[in-house]
């Protein structure tokens, strides 16, 4: 298994330098195409998606996240953008509609 990264233009360089196959996206159509490539590529076990790139395809990522066990999808912070970490309660509410 290997990693695949879908990143905004400001965040992709570091992953490329680390040897991770990376698609840089700046529009929803590019992000969706990169997601299709990542899911259909043989051997991809983890898809890293920067927050900015994820904002282009939230519904599609949620569908994959809750319907398949592999590949694992991890949303990571974008370069230069401050992010707030979601609490476990927020994740559960979004996943199953129950607030704790």
Class computed from helices, strands and strand pairing: alpha/beta
Number of domains: 1
Low-confidence stretches: none
**Amount of helix:** 40-55%
Order of H and E elements: EHEHEHHEH
Query: What's the architecture, going by CATH?
Result: 3-Layer(aba) Sandwich
Separate helix tally: 5
Distance between the termini: 35 Å
Mean pLDDT: 85
| Overall strand count | 4
Radius of gyration: 14 Å
Could you give a short description of this structure?
The chain has five helices and four strands, in the order E-H-E-H-E-H-H-E-H.
Any key phrases for this structure?
single chain, 100 residues, alpha/beta, 4-stranded parallel beta sheet, 42% helix, globular
Report what the structure shows:
Helices cover 42% and strands 24% of the residues. It is an alpha/beta fold and 100 residues long. The protein has one domain (2-96): Rossmann fold. A 4-stranded parallel sheet has the order 2-1-3-4.
Layout of strands and helices, then pairs:
Elements: E1 2-8, H1 12-17, E2 21-25, H2 28-40, E3 44-50, H3 51-54, H4 58-67, E4 72-76, H5 88-96
Parallel strand pairs: 1-2, 1-3, 3-4
């Amino acid at each position: 298994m290997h990693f695949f990264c879908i990143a905004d233009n400001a965040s992709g360089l570091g992953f490329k330098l680390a040897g991770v196959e990376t698609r840089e996206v700046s529009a929803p159509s590019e992000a969706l195409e990169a997601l299709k490539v990542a899911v259909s590529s043989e051997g991809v076990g983890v898809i890293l998606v920067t927050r900015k790139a994820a904002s282009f395809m939230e519904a599609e990522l949620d569908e994959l996240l809750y319907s398949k066990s592999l590949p694992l999808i991890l949303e990571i912070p974008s370069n230069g953008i401050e992010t707030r970490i979601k609490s476990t309660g927020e994740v559960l509410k979004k996943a199953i509609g129950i607030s704790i």
